[in-house]
Amino acid sequence: MPRDYSVILPAFNETEELPATLTAIRHAMSAIKATGECIVVDNNSDDDTAAVAKQHGADKVVFEPINQISRARNAGAAQSAGRYLIFIDADTRIEPALLAEALHQLDTKACAGGGSIVEFEGDVNFVGRLCIRTWEQISKRTATAAGSFIFCRRDAFDAVGGFDESLYASEEVRFSRRMRKWGKTHGLSFKILDHAPAKTSARKLKWYSGLEILGWVGLMIIMPLAVRSRRLCGFWYKRPN
User: What CA–CA distance (Å, rounded) separates 186 from 166?
Assistant: First the structure.
């Protein structure tokens, strides 16, 4: 059945984060009059991600066997029924105001899509504060969405070919670039919303040292093609025991 919007969550071994994320999403959806659905994409998890998703409010659970976030996002979109698509990471909590504003922007018919500024949950160290502040400036100045929260029209998503499945990281950067280009040819904007930030987990700041995080960022700058290698993008795919 057609829906006004679809919320899509890629999830790989996310039993700990999904309950809070889905609770926040269902709360936000309950405040919206438009019809929506919530889809969780189990990205070949080896824990109870699928079961937890069903228990905590997912309308549908989709399975994507290849562990890659671009494929997971695209798999969810392929199984969705909304004319608008909202992509939220499994460790990101949103407020009703953010979902409402994203849908409002799309309803104006002047916006192809966009993203939101992001804040870490709880107290973070110096590296975390530096990274999030730097990203906020880049995001606003270049109209580039963070993967934590991305919204778009379905026709725009289809026109740009969804998320690039040759990439294992920075797929949201490539997607934003393609969306801006498509939007420009159709007189539509790509907006970064800033009044109700998406709140994302700071767990990587606990998993890795500041030097490890800065080292990964440096690698991506020095070797931009590294985003095409799952091994070199292990920062995003591997977790400490």
Answer: 26
Handedness of CA 74, 79, 84, 90 (dihedral sign): negative
The tokens describing 35, both together, are 């019809």
Here the tokens at position 174 are 């490539």
221 to each of 123, 194, 218, 224, 234, how far by Cα in Å?
A: 27, 26, 5, 6, 16
pLDDT in tens, 185-220: 999 999 999 989 999 998 888 888 878 887 777 777
| 114/86 Cα distance (integer angstroms) | 10
| Number of separate helices (H) and strands (E) present in the chain | 10, 8
Instruction: Return d(Cα 191, Cα 116) in angstroms, integer.
Output: 8
> What are the residues whose beta carbons fall under 8 Å from the beta carbon of 9, sequence distance 6 or more?
18, 21, 22, 25, 38, 39, 40, 41, 53, 58, 76, 87, 88, 89, 90
The confidence score (pLDDT) of residue 36 equals 98
Q: What are the φ/ψ torsions at residue 183 (nearest 5 degrees)?
A: -60, -40
Residue 150: beta bridge partners?
A: 87, 115
Nearest in space to 66 (alpha carbons), one of 166, 149, 150: 166
Tally Cβ neighbours within 10 Å of residue 141: 9
Query: Domains in the chain and their CATH numbers?
Result: 3-202 (3.90.550.10)
Return the CA Rg of the chain: 17
Looking at the whole model, is its pTM more than 0.90?
A: yes
